[in-house]
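Design review, sub-item: ligand-bound model
Attendees: FS, YL, KQ
YL presented the inputs for the uridine-5'-diphosphate-xylopyranose complex:
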Amino acid sequence: MRVTVFGTGYVGLVTGTCLAEVGHNVVCVDVDAEKIAGLEAGRIPIYEPGLEPMVLANHAAGRLQFSTDAAASIGHGEILFIAVGTPPDEDGSADLQYVLQVARTIGRHLERPAIVVNKSTVPVGTADKVRAAIDEELAARGAGIAVDVVSNPEFLKEGAAVNDCMRPDRIVIGSRSPHAVERMKRLYAPFNRNHERVVVMDERSAELTKYAANAMLATKISFMNEMANIAERVGADIEMVRHGIGSDPRIGYHFIYPGAGYGGSCFPKDVQALERIARQNDYQARILAAVESVNDAQKGKLFEMASRHFGGQLAGRTFAVWGLSFKPNTDDMREAPSRVLLQQLWAAGAKVRAHDPEAMAEARRIFGERDDLVLCDSPDAALEGADALVLVTEWKAFASPDFPRLAATLRERVVIDGRNFYDPASVEESGLAYYGIGRGRSLAAR
Ligand code: UDX
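KQ shared the predicted structure:
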């Protein structure tokens, strides 16, 4: 099938590439000419495992093209995806201006019936707004063209996006048009082998499904972080508790890892946006508010531990920081707990030596040149002259450090483990002080 995808960000590029991979003929459109020129030349604007070879192969095979020409691209697709950004505006609600701009562009240039699919995460009711924006443009030029608007949220995890897209758990199709549902099912047929993954529902339910999924996952994390904070105070180890509760299939082992708070482009934004949607509809979402406030506090946890260890005297101290991205296998630092930690350390007069396997360029872009930050080429280089090590992101490269060497290198022999990545006993055996998240009074209060 012929498909056009508006937006070559995370969602658009991964979706377009995976659709091309299964044989569809895809054009990805973006207003950013530099990005499109880069993609044409084989430069992938994001780091996502497995994406680059797939883009290159499908581009070479002619199934994946890139363009800045919206009008021509609208002519290409029978199905037109909207996958542009919906950044939060000042009050936390999703900013729809880019989505609606694309809708209007489609309305201005469409020459034959089409299915417009919303993939961006958008407030409930956006499908209606998209339909209205397209209809308005069509009416303005007297064009009576039939357009179906479908809500088809994405559930991609950064770092695993290609796999999530190629092997989805579910494919949510929000539409009340039998024709649109039939075409969407055909589009996704290659991803829907062996058992039925397509869930058909109305547009609003599909829009809410996306928020509900992310809010539920964020809730699990904040809940566990709260348990960790309790565990720490009562002398329990949250890692034991995690095993203890995860074995109950109703709870499950997934997404109950305590840590330094969730970050990324989705959870913080979507929890806020859903809270806002609820408020606009005369409902105060108390659980969502709590999820957000627990997470905000949790992002200050690593600093708190550092400050407690050093009796509040952090000025002149140097901290090695391992991991800057909000999670492993991505260079994305949006809402990353590392950013809160660094700002707090700097505000207290401390210096940072940081290393991340992929996010160094992003860190340079975000922080610029500053005296209190050294971006180091390797994990070892970050340790040189540091008093303590803070593990913020659980990259594989940080999984098994040589602890005796750490003990010999770190001036104050302190390891703060923001992901409960290390075995406290192995760390302590080497003569290092160990602090984890929610791992018992003896560990927390030295
Ligand atoms: C998320 C959803 O998983 C995905 O389905 C949706 O489409 C977009 O948002 P993503 O933001 O890429 O994906 O990352 P994810 O792997 O879900 O992690 C989000 C954050 O939660 C990270 O900061 C991670 O470190 C944190 N996390 C996750 C925990 O702190 N504990 C956990 O148990 C799991």
